[in-house]
Amino acid sequence: MKFGYFDDVNKEYVITTPKTPLPWINYLGTQDFFSLISNTAGGYSFYKDAKLLRLTRYRYNNSPMDQNGRYYYIKEGDTVWNPGWQPVQTPLDSYQCRHGLGYTVFESSKNSLNAKLLAFVPVHDNCEINLLTLTNYTDAEKEFDLFSYIEFCLWNAADDSSNFQRNFSTGEVEVAGSTIYHKTEYRERRNHYAVYSVNHPVNGFDTSRDAFIGLYNSPADPQAVRKGFCSGSIAHGWAPVASHHIHLKLRPGDSVSLVFVLGYCENPKDKKFSAPGVINKEPADRLLARYQTTEQVMAAFQELKDYWTTLLSAYTIQTEDVRLNRMVNIWNQYQCMVTFNMSRSASYYESGLGRGMGFRDSCQDLLGFVHLIPERARQRILDIAATQFPDGSAYHQYQPLTKRGNMDVGSGFNDDPLWLIAGTAAYLRETGDFSILEEPCTFDNDADSTAPLMEHLRRSFQYTATHKGPHGLPLIGRADWNDCLNLNCFSEEPGESFQTTGPNDGPVAESVFIAGMFVKYGREYAEICDALRLDDERDAVLKEVAAMEETVMDAGWDGDWFLRAYDAMSNPVGSKLCEEGQIFIEPQGMCVMAGIGTDITEDGSPSTAARALRSVEERLDTRYGIILQTPAYTTYHVELGEISSYPPGYKENAGIFCHNNPWISCAETVLGHGSRAFEVFKKTCPAYLEDQSEIRRTEPYVYCQMMAGRDAPTHGEGKNSWLTGTAAWTFTCISQYILGIQPTLQGLRINPCIPSDWSGYTCRRIYRGVSYDITIDNSAHVESGVASVTVDGQPVTGTLIPFDAGKKTCKVEVVLG
Amino acid sequence: MKFGYFDDVNKEYVITTPKTPLPWINYLGTQDFFSLISNTAGGYSFYKDAKLLRLTRYRYNNSPMDQNGRYYYIKEGDTVWNPGWQPVQTPLDSYQCRHGLGYTVFESSKNSLNAKLLAFVPVHDNCEINLLTLTNYTDAEKEFDLFSYIEFCLWNAADDSSNFQRNFSTGEVEVAGSTIYHKTEYRERRNHYAVYSVNHPVNGFDTSRDAFIGLYNSPADPQAVRKGFCSGSIAHGWAPVASHHIHLKLRPGDSVSLVFVLGYCENPKDKKFSAPGVINKEPADRLLARYQTTEQVMAAFQELKDYWTTLLSAYTIQTEDVRLNRMVNIWNQYQCMVTFNMSRSASYYESGLGRGMGFRDSCQDLLGFVHLIPERARQRILDIAATQFPDGSAYHQYQPLTKRGNMDVGSGFNDDPLWLIAGTAAYLRETGDFSILEEPCTFDNDADSTAPLMEHLRRSFQYTATHKGPHGLPLIGRADWNDCLNLNCFSEEPGESFQTTGPNDGPVAESVFIAGMFVKYGREYAEICDALRLDDERDAVLKEVAAMEETVMDAGWDGDWFLRAYDAMSNPVGSKLCEEGQIFIEPQGMCVMAGIGTDITEDGSPSTAARALRSVEERLDTRYGIILQTPAYTTYHVELGEISSYPPGYKENAGIFCHNNPWISCAETVLGHGSRAFEVFKKTCPAYLEDQSEIRRTEPYVYCQMMAGRDAPTHGEGKNSWLTGTAAWTFTCISQYILGIQPTLQGLRINPCIPSDWSGYTCRRIYRGVSYDITIDNSAHVESGVASVTVDGQPVTGTLIPFDAGKKTCKVEVVLG
């Protein structure tokens, strides 16, 4: 079942009912001010940090779901309704929610009164703009009341939801004309306030929730709306809110447009007040002056649209598959940008209370946005590297505001260092900017301990090379990519963190997955050494890599697939010998991507790699994607940790963990299996699951972290949409491994691996400032193999397009065969 | 305006409308299992620890207020209603909520169907019992549906409200017959589950919130109730709930009684499962078997009533003032017991997420409950002392579960050590049990560092004696009793804790309040030394105390009142010289209670103490009580800290902080001002404010921490009811200082200080196992002064009643004059 449709021309997903199976959301904001907005206008806003500077209050896990947002009540006679349906839930005569790139539009109507609500955050201001246009489609004059409503958060969202003995006494506001200022704690140490205004005279206002909503009423039935007027309340403590009341008359066919602005304003410390106790409103005045007219708003909206058009022009395809086109050209890249902006902080599953940027998360996200915003990717890499420990290991997360590492989830996740190589190598391939390797970066943010980025990569590699267990495989530490495989934890107490309990490291537990990473990213590191003409280091690295490859084939192979790990007793994990958890997805994908076991066999039998992927298909595949391992753990295994804490089929315990599905897809392309690679790609790709939205439940335009596996009673149900490394990896998979447009250190390489029934496709790729128009001809209907390449009419040998910075455009014709 | 009335015979407060100005709550539970319950059946339950073992989910600061509770939906035709009005809010034909001692009863009716809901936690079981009796008062048969509803919390309430990316995948339940088992995380490290059952066959059930309520419905309109049947849902992740559906028919005049039990059950680790994946239900079976019949329930209810009757028999009075009688005999002592059980953890203002027991809080609470439960008070003292540092200073809080000190709010609150003397001295006066002083107690919970309790008291005294500032007054450290007077903090950053920022101690900032405490509790310590015949130590202590008294009179006196402190620059705080905050309440109360400046002057002019109290009356008094200081701080003072962070009139910034009002009342009795003492007592006493409930808003049967001061726009509005040291201090004030029934180390002393218009009163006091019947005759209409004392017919000299452990009863007649 569908609950909307893709509008590819406008780059929008159009939701046609407010009652989606879960709230379907969008993100507004590109720089510092962000909002979450659902298809019923729910959500909240924050400035830079979702925990520390939250402007509006949201109620997670509420009943009803998705409560608090930017709400507009229209009261015509006894009928009260909202353009977004919530919170009153009056059945609407028409309803539409269009989620676009950085904006959302609601169009709905009741009794021939039409409301169009456009919500967006402008590129250059710290505010959310709501342009509300009301049109009378009847033959008679309409007279009605409009009430706006937002509820302020007292800035620190964690404190706001727990410290009531203080917070019920601190709330303060000011009101001037049509503008409401939220200034809680401004009297003391805050130099910032929030402002909520409308470009129209008001008939009344409220700033106390009790006055507007009523103590025992709900936002579904505010007492002020019921009465038809606000009471001019000034909040003193309790819950400051903002509501404007505007009485409106519309002649037949007439429209009125109102601009509501929710903004964040700062003052210098010595200019906080214009008079004792009165806040300096200058920054708010300046902000609001820029959005006083519909024309100003539409100009800012156009600027936002241009921003996104420019961004997404870096990679566009045309294939015969419209679902593929819309995912690659619009939604997958859009989601990558959202992961750049949000990391894992604020979604409808991430409450915005954790403040960390993951070391590993951020390095991987980078794979998905480096081509969109290479300059910001550069800074991100340097920020991450600056938190690395001198021995090459890493904090597992760092604070985005201070850019310092923190121990909230500890350290000793032994895959972390290698992801720094992965991210940096991707940046180098995209930009060719080797100067980044010379940038000085601190260790552990210690200004006295600094080395060029290249030295950080070296220590990343060496950390893994020097931390091996009894089988010669890398020690897993607290965990590798699978945070829930905790082999040194042994937790018996409820509530203990699986990620910080037990020793940072153990002398025994090893990870085959990290071994695969070591081979893959070790080779990428060797390529960098090669480019820097560090031939000795390159050779030494490749020797280490080759040895590890051998170790994996020896100690890491279970007979039909790669082992997952050895536990703290040196027992295999992910082996036929196990009762549960016999085969895991991660090492199959990573080892084959690394090229381990891919050598053609002499007798024509399947290669080791092919056998591993066949085992994946036979044992882990489902209609909704590949599950993480099988059989699911039915009891708690103290020696394995959190993975066995989930009910079978959910999350890491045999759920479809979407992040690692593209690894299998990529691995299949390594073996030239284009059809299978694309089949795997499609299984978790949201656009292909749109018809099953009643099962998947999450947004059909973005990936989710997890779908319930076949062991779960809700097989196919998605969770944790939006903020997941899945976005970056699926984009890497489709754009580079399948469609085969591959940045390399030397330039763009074209090497598709596609379903044989495809006839071809085109791609426009802006790469190092050059716009490539690439045509792929698969009249031969092969899965892979390049027969010829022509660049601007000239044939070239091989698949690498010689880079010419002097060109503005470059036409590439590739024939497969 | 009143919203109910006191029923003194039944020891109940009867609320007659569900729409009280704020939710008015009660506490159920006496040992380990506790519930909060509001007058609309809202609230939640927990076992031992409101953060770590919360059974049901509550939504703090919700809109509408007070959402989630134990809800029962009665659906008769199209009419759906709840016995507690919430959450459906259908207007009821009749409604009554009776909050009693450890139980609450709702009686309400709709269309002549009557519902009586009794809720209590039995003395000896870990469960809340809901006995629901439905009666048909019409002449026709009634047929209707009943739905129960609770929402489970996933145990750790902090994690439950933030970690959705995990928690939406962990929920698990089992259902057997009419019993629903909530077993989230039981599969892994938890050995406990919750059970919710009814003693009646069910027509259906739901355990998924989405199935019962509906994603976009609210508890005000569950979709299952609307349809008239449950769907038999089994929760897999998301939000596990429990709902029973029972279809009922009642003939005219007939009743049916149903017993619902919400329980907490544990299993030994090796007996968790009865079959793979199936929880061992034996402890639940045993629990439920004890509450299968109404008779069993009523027997447990009677046991609970007896428990409270016994407790409260320790101190009962009869005066001409019924409001005084009900506060002293019932509600004030009841609130003291609630502070014993809850500390500051779980109220409608304390979210239950902080886990600490305050060192100072617990010592002071003890003053209010030591006469009720001396054995448990003894253990509490030893627990607290065991967290003390070897130098006599203290953690500011400790964990109730582990009984270890923690640094969540730091240490260095320099009043803390002296409160240990205060609490222990109170225990000794009540019990005469000097053996407690010989109990070995650790320092900082270090088994290798142990000393008898007496040594802890010694170090408490010495810590203060050896930490003095330039004026010879005690250093204030992070703060003294007023946590918000932070003289060494100097915080400029929003969100920094005023309690943990800056140094633990400063070399300069001093507290006159601690000086007062040092004199008062130093003397009490000297009395203990005296009783132990430590004459030298006694003399040394008294010498130190005398010196401090002199220092206060010298450096701590501002001319018309006692100074509050010297700040970190040695500037006075609470002085005529200040622009704001010229006079504070705390030192006036504490210094006079300590006897400082009480000497009669030779010229008959008012004593120093009297001048201080007159200044309080002139400058700080309001109709709702005495404000904390004046003038209120209108701007932030970085050198004073949090006190200046509150808007004027709220909390410590010139709010009526109820806790310190009884100090003034006590101080007035020290000067013999019985009328004024009682006048001050009455101002904050809830029973006397019942008629102003629309202004005070909080429960008229319990004290609140704070009422808005005269500088606030909401003067008289109460906040933070229930969990406040106010309860202990007001009870100490009325029972000992005003009514004058004073435990001493030697026995009971009778020394009233009362309004002169009183003719007398009687008191029954159980003290060290002897029941005293005390009659006070004030035919002379004096404020204080004992003319004669007769004990069992024999006149005695002085006011001390010689203690005779051989007596069971003792009749005391006191004539004032």
UniProtKB/TrEMBL annotation, chains A, B:
GO terms, molecular function: hydrolase activity
Gene3D superfamilies: 1.50.10.10, Glycoside hydrolase, family 65, N-terminal domain (2.70.98.40), Maltose phosphorylase, domain 3 (2.60.420.10), mpn423 like domain (1.20.890.20)
Glycoside hydrolase family 65 C-terminal domain segment(s): 747-797
Matches recorded under SUPFAM superfamilies: Galactose mutarotase-like (SSF74650), Six-hairpin glycosidases (SSF48208)
Origin: domain of life: Bacteria
Keyword set, alphabetical order: Glycosyltransferase, Hydrolase, Transferase
Residues covered by the Glycosyl hydrolase 94 supersandwich domain: 11-293
Domain Glycosyl hydrolase 94 catalytic: start-end pairs: 307-740
UniProt feature coiled coil, ranges: none
Pfam family, one: Glyco_hydro_65C
Protein name: GH36-type glycosyl hydrolase domain-containing protein
The organism of origin for this protein: Dorea amylophila
